[in-house]
Structures are given as structure tokens and as C-alpha cells.
Amino acid sequence: DDFSLILNTNVVGPAMLTKALYAHLRSAKGEEPSKVVAIGAGVGSVSTNKAGGWYSYRISKTALNALMKNLAIEGARNNILAFTLYPEMVDTAFATPYVKGNPYDQLRTSEETAERMMELIDSYGPPDSGRFVNIWSRE
After folding, report:
1. For an engineered disulfide with 56, which of 6, 86, 88, 101 has Cβ 3.0 to 4.6 Å away?
2. Where are the alpha helices (DSSP H) in 1-139?
3. In a domain, 25, yes or no
4. SS3 10
5. Does residue 120 fall inside a structural domain?
């Protein structure tokens, strides 16, 4: 069903891929750390949920946040960083049905979004591991 598909896509897939690659991501302290990055969504926040609904998507993104936080804690033992980047709403076919209710000042292209994400990924280090970051405000 859709619920299982969404959970598999947003949580199980990233967890299984990270598990399969984990031995290759590990490195000694002092070496360049590996970085595991997830794409987050504001609807995954438990504390800011004021609207309800979107059960499968919301639950999957909340679970992804928990996965990434846990990975950041355990990854620190193996020089692996983990953080979640939140791009707000991006101008894609997926977002088209929701654009009318977009609460953000502007809708950015996927190219702009990818460029900002790569900039942040390159600049982030150990103090950033475990963070959920809005890529535009950097909060």
C-alpha cells in the first residue's frame, strides 16, 4: 500500500543503504570524516505539527529524523557525520499540487537547492553532525 511504499522510500531505504555502506564509511579519527546526508521535511517535526494529516509522509520524515540523529551519535565513534538538510518547498512536479499553500517566501528551483545543499555538505564538520538544518536560513 502507499503507507508501506512511503516508509520504505523515506526510512527503510536510507537505513538499509547506510547499513550496507557503513563499513566503507568508517575511518580513523584525524582522517576526513564520511558524511551521510538525508533530505528532511518540516512536516517531520513533532513539536511544530499544528495541522495533522499526511500520516504516511509525516511519520516517515519523523522516523528519518530519528534515524539520522541516532546515526550521528553512533557514527561519531567511527568518524561518520550525519545530518538532515531541509530545503523547504522546491519547484518540482511533486510540489505542484501544494504550491498554493506554500508558506515560504519563494519557491526555489531544484538546481538552486542542489547547489546550496552541496555548499553546506562541503562546509559541515563534526559540530554539525546530528543537525536538522533549513538550507536557506541555516537554522
Report:
1. 6
2. 2-7, 13-25, 55-75, 110-123
3. yes
4. helix
5. yes
Asked if residue 14 belongs to a domain, the reply is yes
Q: What is the per-residue pLDDT across 105-125, written as a single tens digit (0 to 9) for each?
A: 788 889 999 999 999 999 999
Residue with cell 529524523: 65
CATH number, domain with residue 91 = 3.40.50.720
pLDDT at 16: 98
Element (H, E) at 53: none
CB 33 within 8 A of CB 81: yes
Q: Give me the residues of the chain with pLDDT under 50, please.
A: none
Measured CA to CA, the distance from residue 81 to residue 139 in angstroms comes to: 18
In angstroms, the CA 61 to CA 46 distance is: 10
Task: Find residue 34's DSSP bridge partners.
Answer: 80
Q: Is residue 139 part of a domain?
A: no
Give the chain's domain count: 1
DSSP secondary structure of 26-50 = ---TTSPPEEEEEE--GGG-STT--
Read off the pLDDT of residues 91-104 as tens digits, 9 standing for 90 and up.
Answer: 777 766 666 766 66
Q: How far apart are CA 24 and CA 9, in angstroms?
A: 22
